[in-house]
Amino acid sequence: MEPAVQSVSVCVEPAVPGDAPAILALHRRVLAEGQWFITEPDEFPEGVDAKVAVIRDAARSQNGVFLVARHQHALVGWAQVVGGGRRRTRHVGRLEMMVDARVRGVGVGSALLAAIIHWAEGSGAVYKLSLNVFAHNVRALALYEKYGFAEEGRRAREYRFADGSWRDDVLMFRLVK
Whole-model pTM above 0.85? Predict the structure, then answer.
């Protein structure tokens, strides 16, 4: 029998420009794992200035947000919603989220996702959250389903890894009240 996973206390708050170096470092660590995102580490040239710009853009946006999760003052996760840029898509927020491997499975992702949904419900601008996730990422799929996301579609063999294996892309959504 596995020991019970304990949750950690997490503070979720809007990102500020001073968070950019820690966000960037986490982004690079997660990409280096090589299995959760389509971007490979050497394809990610973004620097601190670009992250600062993303944080500032989100802070000014009616249909976007950038949140960070902290545990004992350390940045351990982030979630970003980018709203559509056209009138017919402004209501859709595309979600991306990353959690430090050292704290996965103890509530950081749940805290971020709950905060994103709360933000969307109060935004008055976002009525649908959408995301993409690899079909083999069962932990993420379970988390999204727990928070009301449903599969909207699947793109079979959408991504090919360096070892020749394929990954399906699962499209998920959640309507916002």
Answer: yes
Counting beta carbons within 10 angstroms of the beta carbon of residue 6, is it exposed (0 to 12), middle (13 to 18) or buried (19 or more)? exposed
Of 94, 78, 175, 167, which is closest to residue 130 (Cα–Cα)?
94
For the chain, the domain total comes to 1
Q: Which residues of 52-83 are buried (b: 16+ CB within 10 A; e: fewer)?
A: bebbeebeebebbbbbbbbbeeebbbbbbbbb
Residue carrying the six token digits 């990102």: 15
Six-digit token pair at 20?
């950019």
Per-residue pLDDT tens for 84-136? 999 999 999 999 999 999 999 999 999 999 999 999 999 999 999 999 999 99
How would you classify the pairing of strands 11-14 and 150-160?
A: unpaired
Residue 2 domain-assigned (yes or no): no
- CATH of residue 81's domain is 3.40.630.30
SS3 state of residue 67 = strand
Closest CA to 34 of 174, 137, 144, 118: 137
Where in the sequence is the domain holding 106, given as residue range(s)? 11-175
